[in-house]
Design a protein that fits this description.
alpha/beta; 43% helix; Rossmann fold; 222 residues; globular
């Protein structure tokens, strides 16, 4: 009896397509950020705070990925004025690189410097599929608990940066910032960590500056 490892084949083909996406965006000089988290961790809110800070220096586009609804896309478009498209995954809990490529084509990369992909809310599947992004930004909200990097290791292993969100409710929840850092670093010692609160703006400027520096480095090819 022959045994076929389908998952490995799918991921292998996805990774090859990711190389094509990176080559395309390198040629265009576009910086691509894949934003991932569980549902409700604050992806849309963080984008709504980041984009106005970046828009004076970057032409920004946003890809909103959801199982259904265009609520987040409308929110980001209304609050930031960025160019936004909505894609529905037809029930899929993640974005493959093929879907990423099709979304980039639908959005259009000409005239843009920085593109955010707000991935499907999920701490498992999105981490498995390379979207061709330059940066994986993962959110970990205080209400989720500081143990999530231990329970969902791959998501934090693929993260370039982790933003701990919703600091304003820290007193209500049993959340240890020291444990959060320790658990993130256990999975990925190279991950940059930011502590943020979209309500009062804490840490948003630092996160914005981190993204800005990475984007400028690519766009200017320093």
């Amino acid at each position: 009896m022959e045994i076929f490892t389908i998952k490995e084949d799918i991921l292998s083909r996805n990774n090859e397509r990711a190389k094509e996406v990176r080559a395309l965006l390198d040629e265009k000089g576009v910086f691509y950020v894949n934003l991932m988290s569980s549902p409700g961790a604050g992806k849309t809110t963080v984008l709504s705070k980041l984009i106005p800070r970046l828009s004076d220096d970057f032409r920004i586009g946003v890809i909103e990925a959801d199982l259904d609804s265009d609520k987040d896309a409308l929110t980001v478009e209304r609050e930031t004025g960025a160019k936004v498209i909505q894609i529905h995954t037809a029930g899929a809990c993640h974005i493959t690189c093929q879907m990423s490529l099709e979304a980039l084509e639908a959005l259009g990369t000409d005239g843009l410097d920085l593109i955010f992909l707000e991935n499907v809310g999920n701490l498992v599947c999105p981490a498995e599929f390379d979207t061709g992004s330059d940066m994986n930004l993962v959110l970990l909200s205080v209400p989720e608990g500081d143990d999530k990097p231990l329970k969902y290791p791959l998501m934090f292993e693929v993260a370039d940066a982790v933003a701990v969100t919703k600091l304003d409710v820290a007193e209500i929840f049993d959340f240890s910032f020291d444990n959060a850092v320790k658990n993130i670093k256990k999975r990925n010692e190279n991950a940059e960590i930011f502590f943020t609160c979209a309500v009062n703006g804490k840490g948003i400027d630092e996160l914005e500056q981190y993204i800005r520096n990475k984007a400028v480095k690519k766009i200017r090819k320093d």
